[in-house]
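= Protein in question =
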Amino acid sequence: MAGAVSEALTIVFGKNYKLTDHTYDYLGMTPRSFGSFQAISTEAANSKLYAGFHYQFSIDVGLQQGKEVTQNIAAILLHKGKLVPPKKIE
């Protein structure tokens, strides 16, 4: 799921979209900054490894599979004219 969502957001907002997560500001935690959606998805996926839910090989394959599924869907939508490629932000 993390691979699919990060790829979809990358398609919409661009490859190096930087953002800062303020989810836990109200608890006094430090905001976390990321240089891409892929960085967030990798961290989210690896949290499953740290929790003991998954193995590294399944995390790697899952991230790649989610990315490829999203790319295939985007290609179909782009071909049908239902997806507009993102504009370059410079």
User: Anything to note?
Assistant: The chain has three helices and two strands.
